[in-house]
């Protein structure tokens, strides 16, 4: 059975603002890396069939070995589906020599209007088995908290 990791959060910003933060490379590099990491976008093509390449660097790699190198995770992400103010579907492939991190993970960012805000649920399927489920769900929750702080500060 395929593993599914999920995290949700209510964000005090309209769906259009949240969607914009999912498709802005500077915003994405700022909010997507979970606590303890920083990110850099190397390539950006925001359209279905396009995508981006992100380098995630651990601020302290002790006890957190990277998938690509001792301190980094490099991921190539393709945009599979973009529905303005509703959904972003990404297909992520980590650069890794270890087969436990191989494969394509699908990340679906679902946005739903909720009063004056947006309910955001991120669902990951096809998660490589080398990624610990509890750690991954904690990282997704951290990214959602960063996203909320980003869009709520801008709005």
Automatic annotation (TrEMBL):
<dbReference type="Pfam" id="PF08327">
    <property type="entry name" value="AHSA1"/>
</dbReference>
<dbReference type="InterPro" id="IPR013538">
    <property type="entry name" value="ASHA1/2-like_C"/>
</dbReference>
<dbReference type="InterPro" id="IPR023393">
    <property type="entry name" value="START-like_dom_sf"/>
</dbReference>
<feature type="domain" description="Activator of Hsp90 ATPase homologue 1/2-like C-terminal">
    <location>
        <begin position="12"/>
        <end position="152"/>
    </location>
</feature>
<comment type="similarity">
    <text>Belongs to the AHA1 family.</text>
</comment>
<protein>
    <submittedName>
        <fullName>Uncharacterized conserved protein YndB, AHSA1/START domain</fullName>
    </submittedName>
</protein>
């Amino acid at each position: 059975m395929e593993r599914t990791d999920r995290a949700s959060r209510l964000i005090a910003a309209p769906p259009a603002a949240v969607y914009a933060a999912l498709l802005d490379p500077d915003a994405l590099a700022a909010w997507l890396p979970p606590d303890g990491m920083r990110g850099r976008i190397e390539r950006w093509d925001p359209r279905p069939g396009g995508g981006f390449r992100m380098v995630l660097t651990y601020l302290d790699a002790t006890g957190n070995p990277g998938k690509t190198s001792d301190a980094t995770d490099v991921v190539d992400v393709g945009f599979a589906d973009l529905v303005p103010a509703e959904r972003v579907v990404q297909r992520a492939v980590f650069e890794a020599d270890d087969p436990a991190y191989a494969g394509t993970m699908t990340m679906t960012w679902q946005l739903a209007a909720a009063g004056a805000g947006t309910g955001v649920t991120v669902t990951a399927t096809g998660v490589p088995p080398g990624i610990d489920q509890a750690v991954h769900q904690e990282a997704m929750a951290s990214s959602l908290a960063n996203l909320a702080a980003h869009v709520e500060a801008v709005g």
